[in-house]
Write a structure and sequence with these properties.
Elements: E1 4-6, H1 14-22, E2 27-29, H2 38-45, H3 61-71, E3 76-79, H4 86-94, E4 99-100, H5 104-113, H6 115-136, H7 141-144, H8 153-156
Helix pairs in contact: 4-6, 5-6
């Protein structure tokens, strides 16, 4: 039975993923910082403490994916944490994720528009990912994962 280890919004560090690999874990959900901020959510629930200085804590999703992939090609990586649209999905797959996961944006559609709005959003995401892939000249996720990429900006630092 496969075991999936999931982070909850702070990103799995390279050292943590290495430890998990050494333990025999082959599936991880990166859940990098950039998505739902659980430190902020908990801070809003606790009026006696203030944790604002920790709001930016964590490993960004892209870095967590790149670092995890650098450890093993056999690791199955779920890229999540701030994934909101087809471009985010494509980028996560290109840099090393095997699949992506979306929660915050899907929950927004569900709570504000109901089941049908959420379903339509997810179908549209799929259609847009196909369009991104067409723009990149690829026909499959397997081909998408072979696209060369360049790291820039803060991630490069």
């Amino acid at each position: 039975v496969p075991i999936i280890v999931k982070e909850t919004g702070n990103g799995l560090s390279k050292a943590s993923v290495k430890t998990l690999l050494d333990m025999g874990i082959k599936y991880v959900d990166i859940a990098g910082s950039g998505g739902t901020n659980f430190i902020e959510i908990e801070d809003m629930r606790d009026f006696e403490e203030d944790y604002k200085e920790f709001y930016s804590w964590g490993v960004p999703t892209a870095k967590a994916i790149i670092d995890a992939r650098s450890l093993s090609d056999d690791l199955f990586i779920i890229g999540s944490g701030g994934i909101k649209d087809a471009l985010d999905m494509a980028k996560a797959l290109i840099i090393g994720a095997d699949m992506t996961a979306i929660s915050g944006e899907a929950l927004r559609y569900l709570t504000l528009g109901g089941y049908d709005a959420c379903y339509d959003y997810l179908l549209e995401l799929r259609e847009r990912l196909v369009k991104v892939m067409a723009l990149l000249g690829v026909k499959s996720i397997k081909e998408l994962k072979k696209i060369d990429y360049k790291v820039t900006g803060r991630l490069k630092e």
